[in-house]
């Protein structure tokens, strides 16, 4: 049995007087420590699947379990990071990172020590007394990542966390989250519609397509930590993803007489 088991999951929503099928017969098994990207165009059910796994939504049919237990509600063991950072504007950076630790009733001096550690990890130790509004979008998302890691979650769910950032900041954060999460052996489920992002980050890319939302293919990324965006191996995986979406015409042989 795998760490996360998704069996024959379907999700329908009632939209006005119609039933809309957001997910149809999804099967997926995920091992502990895997970095999984759910990749697909708008409306293919990526967030729906993530929300079901995070316990924010429920299945209409099928079963989902983590560590052998059915998912019934969100738990403090798993943390979700959203696109809009979700920081509390009236708290300093440090106090934002300590937030989850307070819910775990960790004493103040220990909280402080853990917050310091994770702020250092994301390179923001010098900004601990700043407020979120004084930071750039990329820095705010780093605070959200530090806050998420500080509670030492089993699983990190990330729903397009870098979508609002400029391309260069986004690339930096992709590299950072990839190395931090691999160092810490976290299980990550990461939603994106960006093909390059999925190739940079994932151990496996789950390719989803809409109407109804389902898994079209699962692509292992065998780049062994070598995620140089310009390397031939990287471009080869990228091409395979494009082909899965049928976005890249097959190479055609041309004959000249
Ligand atoms: N609570 C809801 N009620 C009704 N319909 C919903 C609800 N949640 C999602 N849907 C529908 O299910 C479909 C899949 O939505 P979902 O947000 O999972 O897609 P997505 O792949 O994450 O898209 P995007 O990349 O745009 O966020 C959409 O057509 C959406 O309108």
Automatic annotation (TrEMBL):
Matches recorded under Gene3D superfamilies: P-loop containing nucleotide triphosphate hydrolases (3.40.50.300)
Domain of life: Bacteria
Keyword Oxidoreductase (UniProt): no
PROSITE patterns in UniProt: ABC_TRANSPORTER_1 (PS00211), ABC_TRANSPORTER_2 (PS50893)
Family annotation (InterPro entries): AAA+_ATPase, ABC_transporter-like_ATP-bd, ABC_transporter-like_CS, ABC_transporter_ATP-bind, P-loop_NTPase
Keywords assigned by UniProt, alphabetized: ATP-binding, Nucleotide-binding, Transport
SUPFAM superfamilies per the UniProt record, alphabetical: P-loop containing nucleoside triphosphate hydrolases (SSF52540)
Protein name: ABC transporter ATP-binding protein
Protein species of origin: Selenomonas montiformis
